[in-house]
Amino acid sequence: MGNDKPDVAFRRQGDLFIFDEDGLEAAEQGYALQQSLGCEVEWLSPVEIEKRFPLLDMQRCAGGTLGRNEGTMDPHAVLQAYKNKAVTLGAEFIQAEVSTLTIIDSRINGVILSSGKRLSSNVVVNCAGPWVPQIAQTVGIDLPIVPVKRQVFVLESNIRPQGDLPLIVFPSGLYLIQEHGGHFLCAKSLEEDPIGFDDFSWSQQHFVEKIWPELVEYVPSLDRLKIGSGWAGLYAVNTLDGNAILGEWPELKGLYLMGGFSGHGFQQCFAAGRYIAELILGDAVSLDLSIFSPRRILENRPVFESQSRLV
Fold first, then answer.
1. What is the DSSP string of 37-89?
2. Do residues 137 and 158 share a domain?
């Protein structure tokens, strides 16, 4: 972004993915792939993990992989930075609701807004997050994407880790992020998480009953804590395989899809956005992401990263 680099609050605290015996084979395969690509990732035994991070109890685990160059940043700051840069390049942003896509001669022709205004274009990118399937449905396209409510909790404790902890993902998908000192973020996707667009409430009881007991198994010193706050948001979950749907819809020229990231959107958005732009422009792609083509939806060919599906 040239001389206008934004402050996205990047913290390189590292990522620690912990696995149990059931996930050992998939972890070994993933680690081998990362090594072949030159990623700086360490393989740690349970003893090594406990030695480096004494807060953790690894009795039920088989090990973990630690990437020290990874970290976290502010997604909203990144979004605003891209938006501001696009405006300086001539883009016009319109805040409105799309009521329907329009078609002429079997190709996309534009959109009609809820105000009745028509916007014409021979290229439309449907990247509306959980609302991607609703927009696609206006032209008869059925996509396996549902809006799943996800709750995140802000925890306060008296524990003071020795140095910064990495972002920790436990075998079930439960994750813990140290914000500073004894303050953490914690969340986990559950099979019973509700589906819908209207409920953004969060519940302390949800954490107490569904998440806390498991968290204490791995971090015993968090048996005493305070739930400082929390929030709820939506995952756009691809029920076919939990992976993104990227590319032009095979049966409708000009309609490009970016959706169904299932919680991985911010991690993958940079590559995905570049890929879609390259497809539209007809440029050679920097990364071949055709494995995520929408054609797999029509042909019922799911793409799984491994047998242990983690969403």
1. TT--EEEE-HHHHHHH-TT---TT--EEEEETT--B--HHHHHHHHHHHHHHT
2. no
- Burial label for 216, CB within 10 Å (0-12, 13-18, 19+), is middle
Tokens of 128: 């509306």
Same domain, 214 and 256: no
Domain that holds residue 161: 15-74+147-238
Please check whether residues 173 and 227 belong to one and the same domain: yes
Among the listed residues 147, 181, 187, 149, the one whose alpha carbon sits nearest the alpha carbon of residue 168:
187
Residues in the chain: 311
Q: How many domains does the chain have?
A: 2
Residues 105, 27 within the same domain: no
| Predicted confidence (pLDDT) per residue in 97-122, tens digit | 999 999 999 899 999 999 999 999 99
Give residue-wise pLDDT tens across range 46-73.
999 999 999 999 999 999 999 999 999 9
**Residue 203, both tokens:** 């519940």
285: Cα within 13 Å, side-chain hemisphere: 15
Q: Are residues 37 and 156 in the same domain?
A: yes
Query: What confidence score (pLDDT) does residue 160 get?
Result: 86
